[in-house]
Amino acid sequence: MIFCFSGTGNSMHVANKIAERTGERLVDISESIIEKNETYEIEKNEKMGFVFPVYWYCMPKIVEKFIVQLKLSGYRKQYVYAITTYGIAAGNVMDRLIQTLRNKQVQLNGIFGVQMIDNYVVGYNIINVEKQSTILKKAEVEIDKIMLMIECREDIEYIKKGRIRFVTPITGYGYRKANHIKKFFVTQKCNGCKQCENSCPCNTIHMMDGKPMWLGECTFCLKCINGCKQSAIQYGKFTEKRDRYQYK
């Protein structure tokens, strides 16, 4: 069983690759999935994985929300692992995951991280295509290594935390408290296609008078701004001239 959340496709690529190799069920975490409140059956020899990106050295709010309400049947200390994708480093992102799982009486055995392309266009520009290619080639090698460790059910921590991982409690607090939606807007390029509304994992985007509005809880995955084919979605003053990124 693999539980995955992905904004622009990095984490979903990792999860898909593992699922294709193992034949395990892949659950795409979203607000709709959370509302279903399903009970997940874990088989005797089945592994359970969580795959998600790092936001501000923190796991996405929607992932934590999902795990808090997660209902499992048949869990008997089977092998549990987590993989996070990050642009520069992961910080101490797994600390909160470990505690959240512990509250569910679930033990995390394998901790992994994979460097991929940073999609944080609201903070800085996306790296060029040549650098993207280099990072993604290295990522494939790392994913293969991680899959072997998972198959061997290794109790291991294989992740780059970074030099300033000690700021994780501060950045995590800021991430969870920030009003992420207030600076989103659309330009005249918007054609009302509804792609952003239909693809938002948090059901935060709603079309009003043919234009998207951001209302409610946002996990700040940036799927909308990176995925808009018209480049009509902007955030603040500086994103209009920046590139966009989605895993191809």
Automatic annotation (TrEMBL):
Keywords: Iron, Iron-sulfur, Metal-binding
Domain 4Fe-4S ferredoxin-type, residue spans: 181-210
Record has Phosphoprotein as a keyword: no
KW Secreted (keyword) present: no
Single Gene Ontology MF annotation: metal ion binding
PROSITE patterns referenced in this protein's UniProt entry, alphabetically: 4FE4S_FER_1, 4FE4S_FER_2
Signal peptide: none
NCBIfam families the record matches: ferrodoxin_EFR1 (NF038196)
Protein's name according to its UniProt entry: 4Fe-4S ferredoxin
Record organism: Acetobacterium paludosum
